[in-house]
Write a structure and sequence with these properties.
heterodimer, A: 142 residues, mainly alpha, B: 289 residues, alpha+beta, Four Helix Bundle (Hemerythrin (Met), subunit A), 2 domains, four-stranded antiparallel β-sheet, two-stranded antiparallel ribbon, 8% strand, elongated
Chain lengths: 142, 289
């Protein structure tokens, strides 16, 4: 545990205020840049979209780190406490990967249904409930 | 922020010295932090999982939709008749929360020095910041529900997937001769207006020659927005309530008698910072991305 004087730690708090405010302003600027407000037409490039997205996520994680470590004093707690609180959140990484994958799959299903709906209906009513003679007519789902 | 050796630490050192022999008596709490503080941390951890569940559901549903309303189009209105000011109002809301977080840190610092007056001033400022945020959120919701007619299951914010041109003006009337028709690009969002109780879905012609009309946006958007920002707003609301209770307690000298460096202020401070922490991510996924 480091010990700062009262004056020093007061100064440090207000430095934190400027830091968080500046990071938020940079985030808003980047977001508007990615949407084509700063440079018209920039939103049409996929690279701009990805780079801006990654920067925004990075800056938000930095803000979260700063709030937990400085404002919530995690830096000055015993290591065991910090680990027991922070390590479980690692599980969320898998939740994010799994559920975004799931979201993508739903999207593909919806597109497939729309595509099937647009196709002309098969005239032969007897087809219902019977196996198709031509196996190539079966198409994999998704 | 670390301060000069605080009252809590002094007490902890004394405790540690006197209790070395009776670990089994329950007198010593783990991690050299008080029971209340540790339990606040674990409560916040579980709350973080609740919020993460909501935000990940938002991500999954957004990924599953072919289009999603563009946030800087949806959130471009501010009080006093300001329009077309993308993200400005919500940035002000973020600043309010950040500032109230900083005033909370100051209240905790003054508490460590057993400075009752300081704690009261900074706690009061924190309550003001939180109330300001709630007021802004009330305005934002009122604008979305009352003026733009978004509800939990109706989302009038749609997005074009192709370039095209409008065949009707904003009131649903065909353009008159000589009027320049409005055009739109793929990826642009629009708001379906309500005119005398009826939705006006403007007719359009796409670049490939086909015709269509403004369709409603993904339904999940309204439900996700109101539930997630509402759940966060409820946290801010309870935070303001608890801060007020603590302020009254400070004023009535309860924590002076406990002689533990206003630890209660520190615990409610943890909760308040957590509310700010969650907003960082709500701000990211709803407004920035």
């Amino acid at each position: 545990m480091e010990h700062l004087s009262y004056e020093e730690s007061k100064k440090k708090v207000f430095k934190g205020l400027y830091l968080l405010a500046a990071v938020t302003l940079v985030e808003v600027f980047l977001s508007l840049l990615g949407k084509g407000y700063v440079i018209p037409g920039a939103e049409k490039y996929a690279a701009v979209f990805f780079v801006v997205g990654i920067c925004l996520i990075g800056l938000s994680l930095y803000k979260a780190y700063f709030i937990v470590y400085e404002f919530m004093h995690m830096r000055y707690e015993v290591k065991g406490l910090a680990l027991s609180v922070l390590l479980p959140t690692v599980l969320l990484i898998w939740a994010i990967i799994a559920f975004f994958q799931e979201g993508n799959s739903w999207k593909k299903r919806r597109e497939l249904i729309e595509q099937k709906d647009a196709e002309p209906a098969v005239e032969d009513a007897d087809l219902q409930g019977r196996l198709l003679e031509d196996p190539t007519l079966y198409r994999p789902l998704g | 922020m670390a301060t000069t050796e605080s009252v809590i630490e002094q007490q902890q050192n004394e405790q540690a010295a006197s209790q070395n022999g009776d670990l089994w008596e329950g007198g010593k709490s783990p991690f050299r932090a008080s029971y209340g503080k540790i339990m606040m941390w674990y409560f916040l951890l579980s709350d973080a999982f609740t919020f993460a569940g909501f935000l990940i559901a938002y991500g999954a549903l957004r990924f599953s939709s072919p289009t999603w309303p563009v946030p800087d189009f949806v959130f471009s209105t501010a009080p006093f008749g300001i329009h077309h000011a993308p993200l400005i109002f919500v940035t002000i809301m973020s600043f309010l929360l950040i500032v109230s977080s900083v005033t909370m840190v100051r209240a905790v610092q003054e508490g460590h020095r057993e400075n009752k007056r300081g704690v009261m001033i900074w706690l009061f400022l924190t309550i003001l910041g939180g109330s300001g945020f709630l007021g802004c959120q009330a305005w934002e919701w009122n604008n979305l529900i009352g003026t733009e007619h978004m509800t939990v299951n109706t989302n009038p914010f749609g997005t074009w997937t192709q370039d095209g041109v409008y065949l009707e003006d904003e009131h649903g009337h065909a353009y008159e001769a000589g009027e320049e028709p409005e055009t739109f690009d793929a990826g642009e969002s629009y708001l379906i207006h309500k005119h005398e109780g009826d939705w006006v879905q403007r007719e359009v012609q796409f670049a490939d020659g086909s015709r269509g009309q403004q369709a409603f946006g993904p339904k999940a958007f309204g439900a996700l927005f109101f539930f997630i920002t509402g759940f966060h707003g409820f946290h801010v609301f309870t935070g303001v309530l608890i801060l007020t209770i603590i302020l009254v307690n400070v004023a009535s000298n309860i924590y002076v008698e406990r002689k533990n460096g206003y630890e209660m202020v520190e615990k409610v401070g943890l909760y308040w910072h957590f509310v700010d922490l969650v907003w960082v991510f709500v701000f990211l996924v709803f407004y920035l991305l």
